[in-house]
Design a protein that fits this description.
It contains 13 helices and 13 strands. With 333 residues, the protein is of the alpha/beta class. The protein has a 5-stranded parallel beta sheet, with helices on both faces. The protein has a 3-stranded parallel beta sheet with strand order 6-10-13. A 3-stranded mixed beta sheet has the order 7-9-11. Helix 1 crosses helix 6, helix 3 crosses helix 4 and helix 8 packs antiparallel against helix 9. 39% of the residues are buried.
Length: 333
């Protein structure tokens, strides 16, 4: 029996790279990486081709018939498109319907939350709803908050080399649990989910462990021997900042620092105050529970990951964006 053919958009990105690795390690898929025609010659895509990954051009701004042709003979289509390009999936979903894709996995791969609290999520929900209006077979996968974004800086600056979101403040009292997943484990879950008939036309929530910010600070202090200052920020302060940055964005809608501030404060409210990144809230929203579906997944523990961080052995993500993130949060605090 032929292996299902998976088309993956965003294979050279952080999320897409993890998904690609998970699919390869699973060994049960024929994989095609889809990229913009002008990107096929870029080093990252050439490297994939040299490793034996089939590459195929896909221009989401081109005519629908060309997009449909690019999706020919693909069974499962996974979109790990960049966060700023979510609405580019509108022509993708329409073409996937015409191409008779058997399972479309639109870009989610984040924390559960309702509509109306986060712009990026609202754009994703627009794609989810379009998929359902098209009667396109789908699976939506959320993975919680990444380990790589979960911890604060140390006073010494020792772990700045890998800090993703420099969490200078703790939302609320710091005792709200949040579901965390090592980015490196995302692909393992995706490989399991997309071949599981139980997840067809469903939304699944997969994650590694639950931690609070207070416990994360405690662990990092123990491993590093440093005392981390703890500043707690109430919900009202985050709400004030969100309103202020929305007003600023009306004048400078493309300012990357302003856009990050908005994302950061909205996530703090959702994850750290309202406890939306939890299995309980995910189940309330109707998600399938990943722990029940795949209790045998071998994932990296949070404590082991933090040991890597303190020992200088972790690998940074979004390195090109880190100066922007630090600038935005410096202005915030």
């Amino acid at each position: 029996m032929a292996q299902p053919r998976v088309g993956l958009i965003g294979a050279t990105g952080e999320t897409g790279g993890s998904i690609l690795k998970g699919l390869i390690e699973d060994g049960g898929f024929d994989i095609i990486a889809l990229a913009r025609p002008e990107s096929l010659s870029k080093r990252a895509n050439v490297t994939l081709k040299d490793k034996g990954i089939q590459m195929r051009a896909l221009d989401l701004e081109g005519p629908q018939e060309a997009i449909v042709a690019a999706l020919k003979d693909i069974d499962i289509l996974i979109s790990a498109i960049a966060g700023s390009q979510q609405l580019a999936q509108i022509p993708l979903a329409k073409a996937a319907k015409v191409a008779r894709i058997k399972r479309f996995v639109p870009c989610a791969f984040a924390t559960p939350m309702p509509v109306g609290v986060h712009q990026s999520r609202d754009q994703k929900e627009e794609i989810f709803n379009l998929t359902k209006r098209l009667h396109l077979p789908y699976t939506i996968i959320d993975v919680g908050w990444w380990y790589q974004f979960s911890f604060p800086r140390l006073p010494s600056g020792k772990i700045d080399y890998v800090v993703g979101f420099p969490n200078e403040t703790i939302p609320g009292d710091g005792n709200v649990p949040t579901a965390l997943t090592d980015l490196r484990d995302v692909g393992k879950y995706v490989a399991r989910v997309i071949k599981d008939e139980r997840t067809l036309n469903k939304t699944a929530f997969v994650y590694n462990e639950l931690w609070t910010q207070n416990k994360i600070h405690d662990l990092l202090e123990k491993l590093s021997g440093e005392k981390i200052p703890r500043k707690h920020t109430p919900a009202e302060e985050y709400e004030r900042k969100v309103d202020a940055v929305i007003a600023e964005l009306e004048t400078n809608p493309k300012d990357p620092v302003l856009r990050f501030k908005k994302v950061y404060n909205q996530y703090c409210l959702s994850v750290g105050i309202r406890a939306e990144n939890t299995p309980e809230y995910a189940q309330y929203l109707g998600y399938l529970d990943g722990k029940s579906l795949y209790p045998d997944v071998n994932f990296t523990s949070y404590e082991n990951y933090m040991k890597e961080v303190v020992d200088g052995k972790a690998v940074g993500i979004y390195d090109e964006m880190r100066p922007l993130l630090f600038q935005a949060l410096k202005e915030e605090h």
